[in-house]
Amino acid sequence: MTQKQKLDFSKSIKSKICQEIPSDTNPYLANERLISGYNIEELAEKTTLIDSIYLLFKGELPNAIDSKLLNSLFISLINLGPRHPATRAAMTAGISKTRAEHLLPIGLMTLGGDKGGASEVELAYLFIQNSLDNSPNVLANELMEKQTDLHTHIAPGFGATYGDIDPILIRIANQLFNIKPESVIFKWCLKFINEIAKHNAGWLVSGLAAAVFLELKMGKRESVGLFQLACAPGLLAHAMEQTHRPITDMPLLEDENYVLKK
Amino acid sequence: MSSKNNENYPPTHYWDQRANKIETRIGKWTGGEDIIIRDKSLLNDLFDKVSYMRLHVLNITGRLISEELGKWLENNFMVMSYPDSRIWCNHIGALCGTMGTSPSAGTIAGTLGADSRVYGGAQSSMLALQFLAEALIDYQKGVSVIDIVEALPTKQGKPAIIGFARPINRKDERIEPHRVMSKRLGFDEGEYMQLANKVDHYVADKYKLGINIGGYMAAFLLDQGFNADESYRIKALCVNSGVMACYVENYAYPENSLLPLKCNDIDYLGAPKRSIKN
After folding, report:
1. I need a surface site. Which of A185, B62, B146, B157 has the fewest CB within 10 A?
2. How far apart are the C-alpha atoms of A194 and A204, rounded to whole Å?
3. Which of A195, A230, A196, A190 is nearest to A213 (CA)?
4. Are the C-beta atoms of B145 and B199 separated by less than 8 Å?
5. Residues forming a β-bridge with B30
6. Would you say B165 and B209 are in contact if contact means Cβ atoms under 8 Å apart?
7. How far is B170 from chain A (nearest CA, A)?
8. Measured in whole angstroms, how far is the alpha carbon of residue A47 from the centre of its chain?
9. DSSP secondary structure code for residue A101 in this structure
10. Residue B227: which of B75, B125, B81, B117 has the closest Cα?
11. Do A15 and B28 touch (CB under 8 A)?
12. What is the ipTM of this complex?
C-alpha cells in the first residue's frame, strides 16, 4: 500500500435505526438497545410485532389505520401456498435434509425473482407510482393491446395467474383497501384492475404488496425485502414440516416422465 | 402456447401438458449408466477430457468452448476473487466465519453479496456487456465515442459507465495481464474490444476513469459471441474462492473477533431516547 492514494472511505458505520448504550464497565457490551429512541424492552411490552417492524423502516410508530393495513398485508402474505415455487424450493430442501438454518434463506432467495417474486414488487411499485397521473382505463387498454402472450404480465404486478384472475387476491385487495378507502393509490389500482379484468387479468401478489407499500410510503427497495419478510413464515413452516418426513415422501419423477429431447 | 386466445385448447392447456413431466434439452442422469449433458456423454465425451471451466460453460450455454477460451475464463476467475477480507463479498464471508456459519452458507452469502451493480464481476459485467453491445450499434451508425459517453447519466460529475470505473478509484491491475494472456492464447481484439479501448482512452483523458476488469471482460466475451445473460450466468460464482478463504481464516477465531465494534463506534443519527405515549 506504499505510495498509494488513501482509500478514503468513511471511518464509521452510520445508522438512524438503532442506538446501543454501553454498560458502564464494558464498552462492547450493550446495556440498552433503542429502536428510533424506544427501548426494545418497552416495545416488547407495549407494541405489536407489526408496529415494531413499521418503526424499523419508518422511524416512527404507525397510526392505527396504517398498523392495521400493514398487519393485514403481512397476514395475507404469510403463506403463498405449498405449490408456490418459493415454498416448493424450501420444501424440497426440507425433505432432502438440508441444514435447518438454510431452509428459510433458500425459500427467500427463490422468492427474489422478477417473475412474480420480490424483484417484481419494486417494478410494480414504480409502475403504480409513475402511472397515478394517467387514466387507469386508458393505460390498461394500451397495455392490453400490446400484450400478446399468455405468460407475460401486462404490467409489473398485474396479469393472469394460470391464465386467469386470482380470486383470492381480488378479495384480499378489497379487504385491504377498505381499511383505507380514501387512498388515491388504492382508488387508481381498483380502476385499473376493473379494466384489465375485462381481459382476464388481475392482481398478482407482487402488485398488491407494492400498492400497500406505496400507500404506506415505504421505499421501493424496502418493499422488496418487506415482501420477503411477510412471506417468510409460510416458507419456513412448509420447509420445516418436510424435514420430519422421509426423503422418499415427495415425488421424484420416474425416468419415463423425464424426457431428454434432442 | 404463446397466444392469449387459443380457442383450440382449454385455458389451462399449457400447464396440463407440463404436469408430472419434464422435457429437457439440458441433461439427464440414468442411474448406474451415464449422464447426458447437452447431447454429450459426461463419462465418455467429457470426463478427463475437458476442463471444469469448459464443462461449466457447456452446462450454461450449450457451447463446448475451445481449450484456449476455457483457459482464458479460468484465469479470469483467478483475478475475480482476491482473498482480502476488506472487499465486501469477502467481508461477508469473513463475518460468516466468525459466526460459525456453514461453509456452504458462507460461500453463498458472500457470493450473493457480490451480485452487485458496482462490483463483483457477475451482474456488473452483465451491465457492462449491455452497455458495450448498445454502444457498438450506435458507433456503427456513426455516433462518436464522445457522444456515446456524454449521453450517459452522470454521477459526481462523471459518466456512470459500468465497466470503466471502480468503487475504489485506482488503476485496475488486471487489465494488462489480461491483454498479455489474450495475445498469448491467440485471441485478436474484435470490434467490441476495439470500441472498449476507444472508450477507455476517452474517459481516461477527460475524467480520469479507465476500463476495469468488468469492462475488459465484457468486450472480450462479446467478441467471443457471448451475450449479457450468458456472461452473468457464467460469472455468477466467480468470487467464491476468495470468500471461502476469508471465511476459513475467521472461522478459526472466537466469535466477535473481526473488527470488533464498541457500542459508540456506530454513529447513531436517529431519534433521541423517548418513551411510548399511552
Report:
1. B157
2. 14
3. A230
4. yes
5. B34
6. yes
7. 8
8. 22
9. H
10. B125
11. no
12. 0.93
Fold that domain B123-234 belongs to in CATH: Cytochrome p450-Terp; domain 2 (1.10.230)
* Number of cross-chain residue pairs from A and B with Cβ atoms under 8 Å apart: 127
Q: Which of B268, B269, B277 to mutate to test the interface with A (most CBs of A within 10 A)?
A: B268
Locate cell 469492462: which residue? Answer: B215
Considering only the beta carbons, identify the residue of A13, A59, A251 that sits closest to B270.
A59
Domain ranges across chain B: 25-65, 69-115+239-254, 123-234
Q: Is A149–B39 a contact, with Cβ atoms under 8 angstroms apart?
A: no
Alpha-carbon torsion B126, B127, B128, B134, what sign?
positive
Grid look-up 452473468 returns B232
Interface of B with A in 253-272 (CB under 8 A): 256, 260-272
E strand or H helix at B22, and its extent?
strand B22-24
H helices of chain A, in order, are 40-46, 49-58, 64-76, 85-95, 100-111, 118-131, 136-146, 167-179, 184-197, 205-215, 220-243
**Window 95-134 of B, Cβ < 8 Å to A:** 102, 104-105, 108, 112
Smallest Cβ–Cβ distance between A19 and the set B28, B30, B268 belongs to: B268
pLDDT tens for residues B1-49? Answer: 344 555 667 789 999 999 999 999 999 998 888 999 999 999 999 999 9
Q: Which residues are CB-neighbours of A51 under 8 A, at least 6 positions away?
A: A61, A62, A67
- Please report, for chain A, the start and end positions of each structural domain, with discontinuous segments joined by +: 18-63, 85-243
CB neighbours of A84 closer than 8 A, spacing ≥ 6?
A: none
C-alpha cell at B239: 468470487
Q: Which residues of B touch A34 (CB under 8 A)?
A: 273
Q: Given the DSSP bridges, would you call strands B22-24 and A258-260 parallel, antiparallel or unpaired?
A: parallel
| Rounded percentage of chain B residues whose pLDDT exceeds 70 | 95
**The three three-digit cell numbers of residue B46, written as one number:** 467429457
* CB-based contact B275 A22, cutoff 8 Å: no
Burial track A169-195 (b if 16+ CB lie within 10 A, e otherwise)? beebbeebbebbeebebbebbbebbeb
A260 and B CB contact within 8 Å: yes
